[in-house]
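Q: How do we represent a protein-ligand complex in a form that can be generated token by token?
A: Start from the inputs.
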Amino acid sequence: MSVESLEQTDKIGYWLLRKGLIDLNTLERALQIKKNDKLRRNLAQILVQDIKFDHDLIFQEVANIYAFKIYSSEECKLDEKSLDTIRKLVDSLPDSIKEFCLQQKILPLKYDDKIKDKLILASVDPTNRSIPQIAVNLGVRKYDIVFIRKKDFEELVHKIIPPENIFLKMLEEVPQEIQVDEKKHDEGIDESALEAEIQKSALINLVEGALVEGVRKGASDIHFIPQSGMKTEIYFRLDGNLSLWHIQENTYPEAVLSVIKDRARGLDRFEREKAQDGFIQRNIDGHIIRFRVSILPMVGTELSSKFESCVIRILDDRKVITDIKKIGFDGVAYDFFIKAINKPQGMVILTGPTGSGKSTTLIAALYQVIDPTVNVLTVEDPVEYVIKGARQLKIGPKMDFEQAIRSILRHDPDIVLVGEMRDKETAEIAIKLANTGHLTFSTLHTNDAPSAISRLFKMGIEPFLIAYAINIIVAQRLIRKLCEKCKIPAKDFDKEIALAAGMTEKDIKSTTFFEAVGCESCSNTGYKGRMAIHEALYFSKEIRKLIVSSGTEINEEAIREQAKREGMLTLRESGFLRVKAGLTTLEEVISSTTED
Ligand SMILES: [Zn+2]
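Then emit the structure tokens for the protein with zinc ion bound:
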């Protein structure tokens, strides 16, 4: 086969080969399949369906070859009005056609802006032979085809036709009340009665339904809280706040917990007095989602009950941010941070309370420095997210956190992530790593950056070791973003509050302050989503000098003042920038940067 004649006989094959996306062997194999293919598929379809090439990679080229317009991921982020247009177009189709479109991954987008009766159809495969047939069924004679990436298509469909939660649907179909013999319960927990309850598929559907709903709503955790009177409350943590999702009534909380325990790995259903940790994995909407289950015994008011509280952490790798630019560092803080993580050695410390997004930022930072030429080791307990390109040590009954920490040095690392410096020993090893040619990432629990220095000092680390091991300490908080749909300029804005919080007259004058209102889109909270604010304390020569010269105490104030002279914004000042940008309220910044 000559490559020149290929251009005439198989244009797709010719271009994919020229572009280096397939090799000659693959091409020959695909051409062979094509020759005898009863379905008369083209080469691209064969490469994806039979030889398992990445769909978007191949069809993006096909779109290029045949000059189909490519509907970019950016363009797919449609506003409510455009989504509504698609919804109406789709809803106007008979069910069978609608189903066929979705199955073929074809969506009517809108009518052309210029040519009135010309419909724009988006397809993940612009060469799909069903397109003309679908156009006929849609009743249009003129149409244009645009290429849409498969993942964009799925996201779009998800927005237009929210998927049904089959577990919740099944739940609607069974009677809510679950009968248990009251008498038996009075005599204590009767395992066989519980067994009978577990068999009720309703509870299984409830638990599975909660997992699916939690993931789809973007919750970070699902809480199951037992209450007296045969009730279990189920909450989702959304944007940092718990919100009630469901109350399961007329069911013993023990039965709900038993179902969770049965469906998780590593949990003992008959154990009700001990803290337990388990694990669940599910495929939800085509993604593998991991769940970490934590169970703790609780005091109940009813003596016959053995209550346990359960929290399920949702570990959705899609939430991992791999681009440090998306963390939201402001100008100077971003420059400091990039400088610090690009040094060959030294510590990068993230500090803040639980839930301030420290590990999200650290993982994004790791992704900037991971490459196949370096050995990246992580010691985290527990491991929250899979980090591609890193070796993540497995902490378990046979190797605890301390043992793992002590072993890393012997495992020839270049870059190390130590989940948390929880005591002197961990801190000493982390600092030793940093001082012996390793880039070391870790976290601490302190309110701000200067106090992290004090914490290490109080743990018993020598000031000169602290001064020269650390590249940067970043304090982080997550603050709520105003809902763009309902925010309004603040009506009775109190200047005194802004002044007392530390804003200058000049800043106040040049700022339009907004207030949270609440609408359907933000569940009436006035806020939607969160963003990070930072206090980035870069270890300059001057800062190091100040630390080394510490006597019996670290002078946090002197360090803070020096850092501010060098460009550091405090957490609150970083928050003010977001107020000035109209992204959040003054109250939100004050409340999330006030320490008690
Ligand atoms: Zn709103």
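The radius of gyration is 29 Å. The chain has four domains: 3-67, 70-160, 166-317, 324-479+530-570.
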